[in-house]
Structures are given as C-alpha cells and as structure tokens.
Amino acid sequence: MFVRNYMTKSPITISKKTPVFEALEIMKKYNIRHLPVVSEGKLDGVVTEKMLLTVSPSPATSLSIYELNYLLAKMTVEDAMVHKVIKVSPDTTIEEAALLMRENKIGSVPVVEDEKLVGIITVIDIFDALVKFFGYGKPGTRFVLEAKDEVELITEVSQVVKEFDVQIQSIVSMAKDNERVEMMLRLSTIDTEPLLEAMKKRGIKVNFYS
C-alpha cells in the first residue's frame, strides 16, 4: 500500500502571492482545506483553511468594511503558509504517511518526486485506503480467528479457503497480550455455515463473524 495509489494527483495549487481571500474562495469552491503553495512546479509551502482564517481579521473587528477589504486585499498566502513542509514520495507506504501525520498533528502531506509536486495525501485518503484494505463495501463475510501460532493459523485457513474455492479479500493479524494471535479474515462468500464447520473441525477458534 503506497502513497502513489491513494494520493490526489495533480492537486489544486496556489502561489505565495495569492491573496488570502482568493485562497479561501478556492477552498470553498473545491471543498478542500489544504493547498500546496508552488513556484514553477516546486513546493514552496502549504497553507490550510485554519491558517488563513487565523491571519484574517476577526468578524468582531472594529475596522470598517472598507478597511477590512483593503487589509484582506493586501494579505497574501505567504503571510500564513508553512515554509518548512513535511513531505513524502510516491513510494512512501501508507502507514509511514499516517505515522507522519499523527506525530506532527497535520491533516495532509504533499507528495514530491524529483523536487516536483506530484500529489497530496490527506487523512481522508488514509481512511479510504484503510476501508479498501479491509475489503469493506464488497459482498463477503468477516471472521475473527484466534490461535497460538500465526503460521499454523494461516496454513489451516489457507486449506479451508482452498477447499471451498473462495477468495481472501483481506487478512490482518495482530499479537494479543496473552501471547496469542488474532486474525481478521474477510472472505468473498456469505455462506458461512460450511466454513464455520470446516474451521471447527481443524481446531480453529472463531471469536466473531459477520
């Protein structure tokens, strides 16, 4: 799962001389909250809706409407953007990008290749990747299995899947605190009873299925 497969390619961009008001209008028009700031294809920085609103005058300001419009017209993205940008390459894994966002408390990361901006990946894109990874939205059944040994569990499950000629849509395993392994398995079938019976015969513990 790599960033290149889930990023927004050729994202909408602005220059650092773009007026703040214009940048806000672009975000509103395209329903986005993050804009890469570029110059000749190279990344200069990133600006978010929150940053732009922070530098904009408060609605409670005592300035007149004429003074307010004049001030907004003079303010540019350069006054609000982040210059030192955390970025990734198209070959960065989804989990690495997610960890970067989590550690730095940011909602997006620009994607750069050969010093050129080629895309942007956001928290929403990470969620989309996760949903696809777990196979949600496709007809099938999810099983949560448990065993002492991961390799043995995978071997047994593979035999059952082969026996019933069904496809594995996704498989995720995680070590539990009690030194056992829990596995989430999503199969391309809704006929669960024969599968459950076969798993029980092989000694596979099924904690949950839906």
Characterize the structure shown.
By secondary structure, this protein is of the alpha+beta class. It folds into two domains: 3-131, CBS-domain, CATH 3.10.580; 135-209, ACT domain (Alpha-Beta Plaits, 2-Layer Sandwich). It is 36% helix and 26% strand. The chain has seven helices and nine strands. The protein has helices at residues 20-30, 49-55, 65-74, 94-104, 123-133, 150-164, 192-201, and strands spanning 8-9, 34-39, 42-48, 108-113, 116-122, 141-147, 168-175, 181-187, 205-209. It has a four-stranded antiparallel beta sheet with strand order 7-8-6-9, covered by helices on one side. It has a three-stranded antiparallel beta sheet with strand order 1-5-4. The protein has a two-stranded antiparallel sheet with strand order 2-3. The longest helix is centred in the C-terminal third of the chain and has 15 residues, at 150-164. It is elongated. The mean pLDDT is 87.
